[in-house]
Structures are given as structure tokens and as C-alpha cells.
Design goal:
The structure is a homodimer of 403-residue chains.
Chain A: E1 37-41, H1 56-60, H2 70-77, E2 81-86, H3 120-127, E3 133-138, H4 144-150, E4 153-156, E5 176-181, H5 184-194, E6 206-209, H6 210-215, H7 218-235, E7 239-241, H8 248-274, H9 282-290, H10 294-311, E8 320-324, H11 337-357, E9 361-369, E10 372-379, H12 385-399
Parallel strand pairs in A: 1-2, 1-3, 6-7, 6-8
Antiparallel strand pairs in A: 3-5, 4-5, 4-9, 8-10, 9-10
Helix pairs in contact in A: 5-12, 8-9, 8-10, 8-11
Chain lengths: 403, 403
């Protein structure tokens, strides 16, 4: 095993990597990912390094990791080389990618905008070419949103498909390990290494998630509609579906209670004991998590169960949901906290579809709005990750995107 | 919210509950579980109490919980009353149920034998009548084995079906929250509260898992065969299947590497920093976890992916696997560590079937060997938990077991 690199870090003009000596590891074998470089969000452990979880107080109050997260070991064993650990929003709780302690990574595709988060550094590293692919985590959009904002591919796998051993938790019934790549084939190739087997193909129809198309800002929907139409040429006319008859805001309202209850159950004791300072907006979100009334989270859990029972059977025949990954392009760096919060609320209602039901979701860099990237999402039933990645490769080809 | 009870604890002649003031909570609502009492394995948080995780050093180095695990809140909201927190094997890593710090709970069905673990206190509390049902956790058998040993019902749900927020982790890709009950209908009733929706019925055939029937001690297989035959009268002749052509020991060999790697990634840093003393056998198991070679765990992960790809499609049509829950009845209290270890190895090969594939498994108290209970297991495809519980109720009725 090699140790922490004492060499000067390679170029990091985007500020994607955590400050300090670069954490690197040579491949542990050769295979599907030989010759590829990757970066890892700094909430996965690498033996010998302290995992910061995006906050200096977390780093200060936790010992260095004695073991490497199995998901990282698996990538090294498949031939990839680790080139560094990347910045995350503090305790992974935020979607803009801002981190006042480590500095906010720059968005390589839209320098005047946020990179998206919480896996901000992983998205920036891949988008900017500092790594071929990168691991992130996704609880409520933390891979999908930065992938959409930075104009690259990203996947949130089926819930439970990838081990979270050696990874810090946020909301355990929603947490997943996902990844980013600049090409559909590499996104899929990483899946060949990490994902369990499953159906090889998605034989079902396209389902257009009208809740999300209507929720999207008009210019975002307009930018992505041509991509939807080309997918229809590939797979036949899409069937419009309304997944949340109560309105997408209702999904947001219920799922944020479920998430907040879990976040406080996971991190409350450490926050109470340590009283860490948080950057703009983060403290308020943790305070809200602390204040959740169990009757509200109970209603949220019941809503979620009913939603799962309605949505999962829809996808059993191999249907594919299609929708804008995010209702908005990345917020401008000089936007107000209130503007950021309204984007966040509109976004989480959409990202909660996969979260609530444990669905795999791939985002493709399919559109642009005033020079800023916006992603198109494809979702499938739980366990159909490999088939979804295969379809994403076909879709990329039809859409003229990097395969 | 009520506080820690200062009243003298109710009868605990079996030693099921953790020492000290009993942690009780009144219901938070009324519903499916009104009038029922329950206990909770002391690795789930209850706000205001320190979670011991079965070890005094864990309790000493962790603050009291500031939030209650959502799964516990859900049970309180459904009308159940919490009557105490129960003993677990140290850090949930062991199958006999022994705990040298808190005392080993007695097996209410076979007082000269171990209760099984790691959810030993929850099984003893339910078996002995101190609670109507109880939460446990199951990584490699920690609900199924004590249920089998104590002659009660137990369920390990589909991986990911129940939130583990506010619960201590052991091997995150295998950890699940399960429960115990004395009747099939209450086992199922708890599932109505906790489980997401899913198919209502299992329409497929019985599949007799010959690997496990052959692996079982002859008297255990003989004691359970009449139950299998009565299930065949209910559902038609079983089809014999060999799930692990390489031999069940091979599944054990690979899965213990996967589990050990995750255990060290989860608990290694705390163990290194705290250097806790462990009871007989536990220290050796953690030392083995620490020493796992990544090439061995890598082979284990690859074996697991191939096994999942082979087994899951078998269960897509609603087939039901049937097998002895454990190859042995509970070991005698005066058995040697070597004897206990050989039982453990034979057992984990069988319990790893559900673990490796994320399958739900219900154990029914269907047989006895020289006065000691042995369980019969029914398993289904991932997400079919409710249908499996419904079938378990039918099976209990046919077998003349408590419905």
C-alpha cells in the first residue's frame, strides 16, 4: 500500500480536492478500469487518512481511518488509480456545493454558477478532467444535481446496491453511493465493477414524468424536450404519467420530514456534543432537522410507503421514467440564500422520486440553458441498474452525447 | 415524552433486559399495535438513553441518544408500548447470545442451552412473555438464529426495507432490522406497520433448498421434514434446488470475507482507539476481521455478485425457498468454544443465503430436537416481505403452530 503523497498536488485549478496532501493510491489489480483515474468524495474512508466529511470539526473529532471503504477497494482492484479525495458540502447536507471551510469547487462548465452538491468536488474533478470518474454519495440528489449542473453523467444506483461500509451516513434509508463520468460507457463500466447482476435490458415503454416536466422552469423543459423526442424515436412514444396526484410539493413536504428525522437520528448526538459552526444555510437545515415533530415524520413515512406501493409495480415490466434531473440550471454564485432555498425546494421534490422508492437514476448532459448545462434523467425499477446504464449508452448515442 | 423509569423493573427472570433502570416509553398514538408491548435491542437509539451496543466501553465512549430511531417511533405511533431495551452480543458480533458484561439471557424454551444471538435479549423477552414482540437486527442470522433457538417466530426483512437510522452498524451491506413474535399474526402485524407495500401473494412453487437440508444435522432435518411435507400439501410438491454448486461452505468462506471487511471498515477505528476488552471468541473474530486480505474480500464480493445474479431471477415469479433455519439446535451452555465455533461456521453458510441476496426470511417454530426448538425458514424474492408474512400465517395454520 502506498502512503499519503508528499509530492505537490497535481493541477487543481477548480479546487475540487480537499486541502492538504493529496490522498492517492495505486491500483490493487488490473481489470475493467485499468488506466483510469478516479477521485473519491471525502466521506468514504481511505485507510491512513482522516475523513473530513466536509467539516474541520468532524476531522478534528475523528481518528484516521483504519480501513478503506470496500467500494474504493473494489475500484482499485479493478485497475483504477485513486488521485485524491474531493470536497463535499458539510456533512453532505446541501445541494449548491458550497463549503466555506474548504472552499467551493468551481463549476467547470459554468464558472459563474455553483457546481452543485453535496458531491461538489467529485463533479468538478470529473467535469474539469482531473479524474476520469469519481465516487460521490446521493441522499436527496447529491450526485444527480452536481452532474446536471456540471454537464456530466451521474448515477444514483438502486438503494442498497452498493455497500456503504466505511462511508459516513446522513439519512440511512436514502443514502446511496453513486458516481460521475464524462462518457456513458465509463459510467456503465464502473457499474460493471460495482453493481450486482440484474436484468440485462429494459423492455418497457418510456414514461414521461409530467409532474417533473411541469415543475421544471420553462426554459429547462424546453431545452430538454428535443432529447425526449429523440428518445421517443428510439423507443416509441412516451406515455405521460402523474406520479404524485397530490402534487410534487407534497412529495417534498413528506420526504423532507423523513429525511430530517433520519439526519437528526444519525448526526444529532455529534452536533449536540461538538456544537460545530456551519456555513450559510447549513445550520438552519440542521436546526430544522432537530425540530422535526414525530407526528410529521410519521405522516411522511406513511406517505412514502403508499408512494412506493404505487410506483414500484409501474416499473416491474422494465418501464423507463424520463424527466428533467433538476427543475433549474445551477444557481449563480451571487444568488441570494432565499433564491438558493427556493431552487432547493423545487429540486428535492423531483429528486425524491428515486429516493422515496429506491430507484436507480442516471442523468445525461442533454441540454443547456443560457450556457449552463441541464441534465435529463432516466429511472428504472429497483435492481435494474445495469440495464438502465446500457440504455443510457444507447440514449447517449442517439442524442449525440459522449459515449 | 416520558423519561427513564425509576420504578423497579418488572419481572426479568430470564435476564433479557440490559442492567439498570428500564427504558420505557408510552405509545405515541393508537393503531394496529395498540395494547401490545415491545422491547428493543440495545443497538437502536431511544432519545435520553445511552445505547450500549452490548459493551460497557461503547456506552462509556458515546453520549446519550438525542433522537429515537424512526423504526422505534413508528412502533410507538402504531400504539405499542416500549417496555425495555434488551441485551445484545457485544457489538452484535456473535450467534450464541453470550454477553459477559451484561450476563447472557436465558433461553426460555431450553434453559440448559444458549438463547442465540446477537439479538439474544429480544428473543428471550418474547419467548418468555416479557414483551409481545421485539426488535432485533440481523446481519448474519442475529434474528433468525435466536428465534430458531428459542422456539418463536422471527423475520429478517428484505435488505433496505426498514430504516436503520439511529441504529448501530456492523456490516452495512448485510445489516437489517428484524423482529420476533410468539404468533404469526403479530409477526405479520408488525410488518404492516414497518414494511413498504409489495406484492400481496407468493404465487410461485416451493423450492426445497437441498444445500441446507443436507448441511443440517440429521436429527434437525428429520424433525423438520414433516413440516415440509405439510407445506407441500398446501402448495404442491417442492422442487429440490442446489443454490451453491460450489458447496455451502464456499458461500460461508466468501461471505465471511465480505462481512469481515465491512465490520472492520465500520468498527475498526473505534476498536483501535478504545482497545475494548471482549468476551470469549469475540476478540478473535474482530482480530480476524482486522486481518482480512483485500484480495480475499475482493473474491468474496465477486462471488456474491455472481450468486445474486443467479438466485434473484429464480424468485421473480413468487417462488418460496424452504429450509432449516439453522443446521443445529442451540448449543448447550457448557459446550466448548470449539464446538460453538463449528456450529457457527455451519450456520453462517445457511444464513448467508438471505444475506448475500437481500432476501426476506421468516423462521417458524416448527420442530424440536431432544426438547430444543428448531426453526423452519421460508424465503422469498426481495421486496416480497408482506406476501411472505401472509404465507407464513397460512403455513402456521397448516402446521398447527400459534397463529
Amino acid at each position: 500500500m502506498n502512503t499519503l503523497s508528499a509530492a505537490p498536488p497535481a493541477d487543481d485549478s477548480l479546487g475540487a480536492f480537499i486541502p492538504g496532501p493529496r490522498v492517492t493510491r495505486a491500483p490493487l489489480g488490473s481489470g475493467r478500469l485499468s488506466g483510469r483515474s478516479f477521485a473519491v468524495k471525502d466521506l468514504f474512508d481511505v485507510a491512513g487518512a482522516v475523513t473530513s466529511y466536509g467539516h474541520p470539526d468532524w476531522a478534528r473529532t475523528h481518528p484516521q481511518a483504519v480501513a478503506t471503504a470496500p467500494v474504493v477497494t473494489a475500484l482499485l482492484q479493478a485497475g483504477a488509480a485513486l488521485v485524491g479525495k474531493t470536497k463535499t458540502v458539510e456533512l453532505a447536507f446541501g445541494l449548491t456545493g458550497e463549503n466555506v471551510w474548504h472552499g467551493t469547487p468551481r463549476n467547470p462548465a459554468a464558472p459563474d454558477r455553483f457546481p452543485g452538491g453535496s458531491s461538489a468536488g467529485s463533479a468538478a474533478a470529473v467535469g474539469g478532467g482531473a479524474a476520469d470518474f469519481a465516487l460521490g454519495s446521493d441522499t436527496a440528489g447529491s450526485v444527480r444535481i452536481p452532474a446536471s449542473y456540471c454537464g456530466i453523467y451521474g448515477i444514483r444506483p438502486s438503494f442498497g446496491a452498493i455497500s456503504l461500509a466505511g462511508a459516513r451516513g446522513l439519512a440511512p434509508s436514502l443514502d446511496t453511493a453513486g458516481w460521475f463520468a464524462r462518457t456513458a460507457s465509463l459510467l456503465s463500466g464502473v457499474g460493471e465493477v460495482l453493481l450486482p447482476g440484474g436484468p440485462a435490458e429494459l423492455g418497457g415503454p418510456l414514461l414521461r414524468v409530467d409532474d417533473a416536466w411541469v415543475n421544471a422552469q420553462p426554459d429547462v423543459a424546453e431545452a430538454l424536450r428535443p432529447a425526449l423526442e429523440r428518445l421517443e424515436q428510439l423507443r416509441g412514444r412516451a406515455i405521460g404519467v402523474r406520479l404524485v396526484p397530490e402534487g410534487i410539493d407534497s412529495l417534498y413536504d413528506h420526504m423532507r420530514m423523513v429525511q430530517a428525522e433520519e439526519i437528526w437520528a444519525t448526526l444529532g448526538a455529534w452536533i449536540e456534543a461538538t456544537a460545530p459552526k456551519f456555513g450559510p444555510g447549513v445550520a438552519e437545515r440542521f436546526a430544522a432537522a432537530r425540530a422535526v415533530d414525530p407526528s410529521d415524520s410519521g405522516r411522511g413515512r406513511a406517505f412514502r410507503r403508499a408512494f412506493q406501493a404505487r410506483i414500484r409495480p409501474l416499473l416491474e415490466g422494465g418501464a423507463i421514467l424520463v424527466m428533467p434531473t433538476s427543475p433549474c440550471a445551477a444557481p449563480l454564485l451571487n444568488s441570494s440564500l432565499a433564491e438558493q432555498d427556493s431552487v432547493r425546494q423545487a429540486t428535492i421534490g423531483v429528486t425524491a422520486i428515486a429516493g422515496a422508492c429506491g430507484l436507480p437514476e442516471v442523468t445525461l448532459p442533454a441540454g443547456q440553458v443560457r450556457g449552463a448545462p441541464v441534465g435529463l434523467s432516466l429511472l428504472a425499477g429497483p435492481g435494474r441498474d445495469r440495464a438502465l446504464l446500457a440504455f443510457a449508452c444507447d440514449a447517449a448515442s442517439v442524442l449525440g452525447l459522449p459515449v
